[in-house]
Input
Amino acid sequence: MGILAFVFDWFKRLRSGARKFTLPAREERTARNTETVNLKPFTPEPKEFLGQLAYLQLTQFEILTNELKYSPNTQYKAELSEAATKSFDKYRHISRKLSGLGFDPTDAMDPYVERIETFHARTAGADWFETVIKMYLVAGLLDDFYRRLAVGLDPLLRAEVEKALNDKALDKFAKRVLTESMALDPTLASRLALWGRRLMGDVLLELRAAFDNRKLAGVAKNRKLSPEEEREVNLASYSKVEPLISELIGAHTMRMDALGLTA
Output
């Protein structure tokens, strides 16, 4: 079974458990983080961690900026520009942390450019509304994930990462404009619900790429593996983070619920 098919089969099994999540009040949502997975041993080194995160934030800014010209009205365009600016602020904050640690930000980001660009190409929306809901769902999940993964960083660096990821400008903008737009066009809701469900599988692939499967499974990097052994390594690594992925799928469900859509 190929890695793509394997991950999607695994994703189907996880969804049934994740559907049990309900939508609590905003101030209660942090309590839902059960911390059932100790991610400290699997947090990448600071350069790798920040390099991936910085490029994700930079590409989010790029996508949002590109969508300005397709905005349905001037008000949405102005508000989207504010959300895009906040995304760039996140990138700038992470980039400065890289520089402060003695790393060149471009050098730190370069190894992840192809992977992240491929992810965004696979999840490109067909129009402005699909792009906005993509960014609402994807940026939210990735921020959640990297906030959790930061647990293995130096406490001061972890606090800086969490501070950078705390801004909710895009989240607030997307929820309001999508709710308004779906109220005016009921057919839009059906289309966005399908698109939102389709996005989750691709986000899981991107989340998995941030981990080292061999490290998760406790296998030496230089050990030569047969295809069957490689599959077993993947199974072992996925099983270790399954509770975390279930939590993130639940968070995805809550974001969809907030729009009145079924995940």
